[in-house]
Amino acid sequence: MEVAANCSLRVKRPLLDPRFEGYKLSLEPLPCYQLELDAAVAEVKLRDDQYTLEHMHAFGMYNYLHCDSWYQDSVYYVDSLGRIMNLTVMLDTALGKPREVFRLPTDLIAYDNRLCASMHFTSSTWVTLSDGTGRLYLIGTGERGNSASEKWEIMFNEELGNPFIIIHSISLLKAEEHSIATLLLRIEKEELDMKGSGFYVSLEWVTINKKSKDKKKYEITKRNILRGKSVPHYAAIEPNGNGLMIVSYKSFTFVQVGQNLEESKDEDMSEKIKEPLYYWQQTEDDLTVTISLPEDCTKEDIQIQFLPDHVNVVLKGQRFLEGNLYSSIDHESSTWIIKENNSLEISLIKKNEGLTWPELVVGDKQGEFIRDSAQCAAIAERLMHLTSDELNPNPDKGKPPCNAQELEECDIFFEESSSLCRFDGSTLKTTHVVNLGSNQYLFSVIVDPKEMPCFCLRHDVDALLWQPHSGNQDDMWEHIATFNALGYVQASKRDKKFFACAPNYSYAALCECLRRVFIYRQPTPMPTVLYNRKEGRQVGQVAKQQVASLETSDPILGFQATNERLFVLTTKNLFLIKVSTEN
Q1: Model's pTM, two decimal places?
Q2: One domain for residues 423 and 358
Q3: Is residue 320 one of the residues assigned to a domain?
Q4: 32 φ/ψ angles, rounded to the nearest 5 degrees
Q5: 217 and 184 within one domain
Q6: What pLDDT was estimated at residue 154?
Q7: Which of 52, 338, 388, 479 has a Cα-to-Cα distance from 61 of 20 to 30 A?
Q8: Which residue has the higher pLDDT, 251 or 373?
Q9: Dihedral of the CA atoms 23, 26, 29, 33 (nearest 10)?
């Protein structure tokens, strides 16, 4: 069985600035333009049965504004009339109204349990689209940047079950055979889950093909499903379609292709409720193992061999328990007896008295350890000095404990660390794993639409941008840019909703749930000479921070960044903030 390679992300030291002095607040005004929408954005609020944190991450914090990475400064949204509206900016001072490019054929109001409509710009001429009811559309658009050739036309549409949102898609052309692969996300009810939220996250990898012989018809050729317990921060298909990368708190695994999900649930549940093969207890001197015997089992059917570090139990000619013991026993003094309730009781005498065994047979998980109340009380008494009912009860004592009230949000270490996994498209196995530890995921951005989206992680106080390269097995993730101290700065923004950066890394920006947008520019040379008085040295460049306050009280529903502009979508307005660096 092949084991996934444990990898690490290699930071490029020349891209770090250890002498970065922070952001200087600039009061220079940012040109801001406001467009009133003809119809409100088609926002879908969470229902009463969508109450978990995963529902909030996936649907409650959904970005309703979509940026066409194939054409600069072109954004799209879906309005309440089911129209896909587009705004393409050529000149800030001559903004037109958003124009309709396509209308969903479904009457969305008729569906009670729908999700928000979602889309992904698969290529310069293809778009994948979901109406939020469980139907997937493939749209041929023509060259979207050319008004003469642009025409949105449905090339494929099919009902795929429960409602979903689209999170990524790619277009492939191999030997005159065109195919589109897309990733669909659902949060589904786990009927048999006795613990946790009662929901699981489903990622469906759907491949749709058109054979060269049939010029018109597209059909689904492959559907693979991954299951996990948390909404992925990042999920993308490799440009060649050979693999998939996911960043998430909880791991994802492929459900076996063709496997009936209900059957797999029943199997999982039967494993959960399976009785242990044996029970065992221990004192400081000995261990007691209790085994329920089969019917009609006599003394002659039982064979037990005691060795100093090994035990072997055979019942009716079948090996029942065998393996190396956790520690040594006095094999000559160890005994066994058949009890009146038709159970076998084995007594093992410890050679090292007082040693607590964490397991009976090394690596064996078929038994269950039973701890008696006296042992629990003794352990609690030994640990009593490590606990207190008060926070920092004696601060004057030497080496006072940490006061949690003094911790800032940016100091918090995440208990559950995320992982970055790469799955092979043919074997459906994990091939590469990166444990991200405390490297908090911040956002993703498309730098080159022909490559996979980049993802930004916090490293110490900085925010580092990583570009996946699926073709390079030895160095699959490249550090391409650094936003100095941004990891620390963003942690103080408690109301942040969306995070983004320019594709050319010239600035990063985040917006709050209401009104405010923060812009953090990369350091630029100063026109005048400045000196750092503390260190007595000349300062050659300064990084600026700017704040824009939108004239609206509506919540922000969408946020996108291009090299020159920021687009902010509210229920009734689309705002455009000119960000391009002054000459």
Answers
A1: 0.73
A2: no
A3: yes
A4: -130, 130
A5: yes
A6: 93
A7: 479
A8: 251
A9: 10
**Same structural domain for residues 432 and 462?**
yes
Q: Label residue 129 exposed, middle or buried (CB < 10 Å: 0-12, 13-18, 19+).
A: buried
In a domain, 472, yes or no: yes
pLDDT at 267 over 50: no
In a domain, 272, yes or no: no
Looking at the fold, whether 358 and 215 belong to one and the same domain comes out as no
Contacts of 555 (CB under 8 A, 6+ apart): 513, 514, 570, 571
Structure tokens at 52: 């978990």
What sign for the dihedral angle of Cα 218, 221, 223, 224? Answer: negative
Residue type, 179: S
Instruction: Give the CATH number, domain containing residue 297.
Output: 2.60.40.790
* pLDDT greater at residue 577 or residue 404: 577
CA distance 289 to 44: 58
- Judged against a pLDDT cut of 90, whether residue 505 lies above it is answered with yes
Q: Does 399 reside within a domain?
A: no
Q: Is the distance from CB of 168 to CB of 237 less than 8 angstroms?
A: yes
Does 241 share its domain with 149?
yes
Q: Are residues 244 and 307 in the same domain?
A: no
Between 560 and 358, residue with greater pLDDT: 560
Residue-wise pLDDT for 533-572, tens only, equals: 666 666 667 899 999 999 999 999 999 999 999 999 999 9
Alpha-carbon 543 to chain mean position: 31
**118 and 147 share one domain:** yes
User: Which two structure tokens, joined as six digits, stand for 110?
Assistant: 């008729």
First to last CA, the chain: 59
Count of CB atoms situated within 10 Å of the CB of 88: 17
- For the chain, the maximum distance between any two Cα atoms, rounded to a whole number of angstroms, is 98
DSSP class of residue 57?
I
Identity of the residue numbered 436: L
Two tokens at 84?
Answer: 């896909």
Mean pLDDT for 303-324 is 88
Domain total in the chain = 2
How far apart CA 148 and CA 139 sit, in angstroms, is: 17
The bridge status of strand 32-36 relative to strand 418-424 is unpaired
Q: Domain range for residue 342?
A: 278-365
Q: What is the identity of the amino acid at 79?
A: D
Cite the beta strand spans of 199-301 per DSSP E. 199-210, 219-228, 234-237, 243-248, 253-255, 278-282, 286-292
350 and 452 belong to one structural domain: no
DSSP 563-576: SSEEEEEESSEEEE
* 405 Cβ contact list (under 8 Å, min separation 6): 391
Q: Rounded to an integer, what distance in angstroms lies between the CA atom of residue 182 and that of residue 215?
A: 21
Assign residue 239 the CATH number of its domain: 2.130.10.10
